[in-house]
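We modelled the chain as a single entity of 297 amino acids. Its sequence is:
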Amino acid sequence: MNIFITGSNGFVGKNVIHYFKHKNTIFTYERNQMINIKQDVVLHFAGKAHDLNTIRNHEEYYKANTDLTKNLFNSFLVSNAKIFIFISTVKAVVDKADHEITEDDNPNPKNHYGKSKLLAEEYILSKKLQDGKRFFILRPCMIHGPGNKGNLNLLYSIISKGLPWPLGAFENKRSFCSIDNLCFIINELINNDKIASGVYNIADNDAMSTNELISLIAQSQNKKFKIWNVPKSIILMFSKLGDLFSLPLTTERLNKLTETYIVSNNKIKNAINKPLPVSTKEGLLKTFDSFNKMMTR
């Protein structure tokens, strides 16, 4: 099978290419390249997903996340390709969640990242497909795996230095998405023609608290760890200082580390009708083990 892929240099793109390269021919899209799809499958991973508070030109989100998706999908519609898979985000639904997020939730994103992804989703959903074509809009939560960069690295760095975790007073639960499970799901969508087009949340089976993550990181390093219940007011004060002086802990990062954000994966599991290959704990331990290998090189 021939696959056309965007975002090949990103974390998801690199892992998906590695997953499929032995069984398929991969054609990668380069930025500003003329779009001419001649392959069987389109995997659209390119986009902008950086810290929203540091991007002044918000139009960059709409160019990268909305306009490019429209152009790709238009090319898909007139091509012989049969499958279009778009990586959106659960942030296209809601920024902060007070309940388990499902595909039935009414999307109401508040930031430009979520809004730009939602506009792309709505465009895809508005188009009529020819017989034999299918599309899948995937809304993953926090994706992680070997080579991952982001907030999990910050947690790992703190524990590896023997520092106590000061955010014990924050109680939360959040969903994660192992890159292994994401690759498995994409493979199933491509090869099972009985799975219907539509929007699917992507997450591992179990949500986990940040304090539980700290325990897993310590386990992966064979280290003891301490959790301090520093008053929330003090932590919030330090995060605001981080905003001013570009310190590791900012209000944006604090929110990501301590928010509750649980995502249901029931729809995609029912569609695939197979168990996910990696448990939440297994996937996270694999990620943390990769951090350890990088540090010991």
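As a brief sanity check on the tokenised model: The first strand starts at residue 2 and ends at 6. The mean pLDDT is 92.
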